[in-house]
Write a structure and sequence with these properties.
This protein is an alpha+beta fold. It is built from nine helices and 17 strands. The protein is 29% helix and 25% strand.
Length: 373
């Protein structure tokens, strides 16, 4: 297929979700190009949280956007299961962010109060509450807390999934609905034409479309710069570690530690400025292990079997970029962290906005123009 109605550059969680949404919204010929560079495959290095908590403390619209996405997750996962047969292992068991010491506990409480107010202003609930140490311990009775843990932020209305299965399910649903997925296609240039069409040059030929979506992560700037579009994103490396299997004792995921259905523990939450290097480092692994053991002393008994790094796509304010190019209104750019958590909205709300059939009021707040100061 060399002609398409919409081409999506980038086949990770964001690109696949938007591609699926475009088909749901009525687009007929949708093609996804996926370069599949290991250094950019963040979708395969994701912690797998479907969370709204902690997001948007200084950005009320982003807090609202994340809350809207999370509310949609149970129905969205059920729809994917019905359509594709993939069980993405959604566990809707809530989530917690632990606090060390009383000062951190007070800071978390103030954050919860501020975000609750911003969500209430637009009719959204923010069902997060503070748990003292005893309440937190009662929530996870089989996982003793470290001595320094003073409590936690907690909500029952979020969970975690298997991000590898999510990516597979999205691609499966996209293709079942008639979308065309083309792996190992490296896009080298985007060329808008006088007739309003767009030529997309790839390593396997040139394709033409009416609308283009650029969701290529850190591959996006090199494609957009020739079009006069600056994309203010930067790489931030995160590292994850996975343990041997253990009996299931942690049913509620914590921001830095979760236990998967097969019994392995994942720990993470590292942040490093390392350009596009996805290597792992001993220092980061030591810090992560020490922090996790400080929270849950039981973890010091386990063998850790694997570690990997992935490169986050970060924006200056942490919120997503959803923007149209000024000179080329039929080219849309998506760049963001938290692609897993925001997946339902990328299918149900971003896709209609791209096609011009509907626009959620929050979307305009995430334009790239907010950085033109």
């Amino acid at each position: 297929m060399s002609e398409a109605d919409v081409i999506v550059i980038g086949g990770g969680v964001t690109g696949a979700a938007v591609g699926l949404g475009l088909l749901e919204e009525g687009a007929e010929r949708v093609v996804i190009f996926d370069e599949q560079l290991p250094s950019q495959r963040l979708s395969r290095g994701n912690f797998g949280l479907t969370w709204f908590m902690c997001k948007g403390a200084n950005n009320p619209i982003y807090a609202q956007w994340c809350r809207m996405a999370t509310k949609a997750w149970p129905a969205f996962a059920a729809q994917l299961m019905e359509e594709t047969g993939y069980d993405i292992e959604l566990e809707w068991t809530g989530g917690a962010v632990h606090a060390f010491g009383e000062e951190q506990f007070r800071q978390y409480a103030a954050s919860v109060e501020a975000i609750t107010r911003s969500c209430r202003e637009v009719g959204l609930d923010y069902p997060v509450r503070m748990l003292n140490r005893e309440e937190f311990a009662a929530l996870i009775p089989e996982m003793p807390l470290g001595e320094e843990v003073s409590g936690a932020m907690y909500t029952a209305e979020q969970g975690h999934i298997n991000p590898l299965l999510l990516l597979a399910a999205l691609r499966s649903a996209f293709q079942k609905r008639g979308g065309t997925y083309k792996g190992a296609h490296s896009v080298s240039a985007i060329s808008p034409k006088d007739d309003g069409s767009i030529a997309v040059a790839t390593s396997r030929g040139t394709y033409h479309c009416k609308k283009l979506v650029v969701a290529a992560g850190h591959g996006s700037p090199r494609l957009l710069t020739p079009l006069g579009q600056k994309l203010p994103i930067y790489p931030q490396r995160g590292q994850l570690m996975v343990s041997e299997r253990y009996q299931r004792v942690l049913k509620v995921p914590v921001l830095c530690t979760r236990q998967t259905p097969d019994g392995t523990f994942l720990i993470g939450l590292s942040t490093e400025d390392a350009a596009l290097s996805s290597e792992v480092t001993i220092d980061a692994m030591k810090n992560q292990a020490a922090n996790a053991i400080r929270l849950f002393p039981l973890l010091k008994k386990l063998n850790w079997t694997r570690s990997w790094g992935a490169i986050r796509v970060m924006t200056p304010d942490g919120a997503p970029i959803y923007t149209r190019l000024d000179r080329f209104e039929n080219i849309t750019v998506l760049a963001l962290h938290s692609a897993v958590s925001l997946t339902p909205l990328h299918v149900k709300m971003i896709a209609p906005w791209i096609l011009g059939t509907n626009e959620a009021p929050q979307i305009s707040h995430f334009s790239n123009k907010r950085f033109n100061v």
